């Protein structure tokens, strides 16, 4: 039965990928990308990779399609036909795919006990992580303690990506008042059903994000997933009630500051470890008992991860929304004049 389920999921993934490559309707491609992310999460679940599936569901099927749709609002829905480029892309994908298939021939069988991954550090993680770290979720032990320096690099990459988007899209000084991207611009035309549903959903979304944030030591979750879920709650609020409303709660300046604060929290915990005479990001000295110190350090750095991820997602949402407004104003401006009404 499990084999049949795996074959069905892989077949659906293949069909979805082919549909994404075939269609020139970018809106349909964005929706299919969300479906692909959900199917990938389901496939990871069948493989027992619950934390990876959780991340894929939150990012691949959650916030990524939303950001893609905002991009489409700027560049248009239809893709122009470029047969030469399409042929070149097909050849490139076919070449890379063939190389990947060839590489799998030298890999050990899936789940083989003699695979190098099962003989290197995995036995130590499985057998000793609870005694050394003190939390039942081995994935969190590995990500937040054993390889905490690598996870710090991932958080810095997310922060740097946010800075890159800010450098590319930010323009002008101050915040631009934005219209409601979902409901009509005029208050009289705002959709009552959307507002009621949003008010019902936003609070549980934020509470669930907090649960995922502080329950990652005991089950699937952690700062990355919680940050995305937390950002989705604010983005939903902005889509339904308008960006001005959500920025009264979390302004652009506050979001930019929080993106840096999360990285600072992570790095500061590592420095505290050095101050206790241990290595960077070794939390054992944060408490009298090394296991308790590990627990405290993991909670702190996961909080930093969640803050940075949520802030960067919100920052990207704000910047794309501002660009959308500017493009709408530019299209509405009379020919030969700027959007301020002065001679261009």
UniProtKB/TrEMBL annotation:
**InterPro entries per the UniProt record, alphabetical:** CPA3_antiporter_subunitB, MnhB, MrpA_C/MbhD, MrpA_C/MbhE
Q: Where in the cell is it found?
A: Cell membrane
Q: Which residues cross the membrane?
A: 43-74, 86-105, 151-171, 192-211, 223-243, 255-276, 296-320
Question: Does the record carry Membrane as a key word?
Answer: yes
State the membrane topology: Multi-pass membrane protein
Q: What are the residue boundaries of the MrpA C-terminal/MbhE domain, all occurrences included?
A: 98-170
Provide the MrpA C-terminal/MbhD domain boundaries.
11-74
Entry similarity comment: Belongs to the CPA3 antiporters (TC 2.A.63) subunit B family.
Q: What protein name applies here?
A: DUF4040 domain-containing protein
* Source organism of this protein record: Microbulbifer taiwanensis
């Amino acid at each position: 039965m499990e084999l049949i389920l795996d074959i069905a999921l892989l077949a659906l993934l293949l069909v979805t990928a082919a549909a994404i490559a075939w269609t020139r309707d970018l809106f349909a491609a964005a929706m299919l990308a969300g479906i692909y992310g959900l199917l990938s999460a389901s496939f990871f679940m069948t493989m027992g990779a619950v934390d990876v599936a959780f991340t894929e569901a939150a990012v691949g099927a959650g916030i990524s399609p939303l950001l893609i749709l905002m991009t489409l609002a700027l560049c248009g829905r239809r893709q122009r036909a470029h047969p030469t480029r399409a042929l070149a892309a097909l050849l490139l994908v076919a070449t890379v795919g063939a190389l990947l298939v060839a590489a799998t021939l030298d890999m050990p069988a899936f789940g083989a006990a003699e695979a190098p991954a099962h003989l290197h550090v995995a036995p130590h993680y499985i057998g000793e992580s609870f005694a050394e770290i003190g939390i039942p979720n081995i994935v969190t032990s590995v990500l937040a303690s054993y390889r905490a320096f690598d996870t710090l690099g991932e958080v810095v990459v997310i922060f740097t990506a946010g800075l890159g988007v800010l450098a590319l899209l930010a323009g002008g000084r101050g915040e631009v008042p934005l219209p409601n991207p979902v409901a009509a611009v005029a208050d009289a035309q705002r959709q009552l059903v959307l507002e009621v549903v949003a008010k019902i959903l936003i609070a549980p979304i934020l509470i669930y994000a907090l649960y995922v944030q502080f329950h990652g030591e005991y089950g699937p979750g952690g700062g990355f997933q919680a940050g995305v879920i937390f950002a989705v709650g604010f983005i939903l609020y902005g889509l339904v009630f308008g960006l001005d409303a959500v920025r009264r709660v979390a302004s652009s300046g506050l979001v930019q500051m929080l993106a840096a604060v999360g990285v600072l929290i992570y790095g500061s915990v590592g420095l505290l470890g050095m101050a206790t005479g241990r290595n960077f990001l070794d939390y054992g000295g944060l408490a009298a008992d090394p296991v308790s110190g590990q627990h405290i350090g993991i909670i702190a750095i996961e909080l930093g991860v969640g803050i940075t991820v949520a802030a960067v997602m919100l920052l990207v949402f704000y910047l794309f929304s501002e660009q959308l407004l500017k493009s709408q104003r530019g299209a509405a401006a009379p020919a030969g004049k700027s959007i301020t009404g002065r001679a261009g």
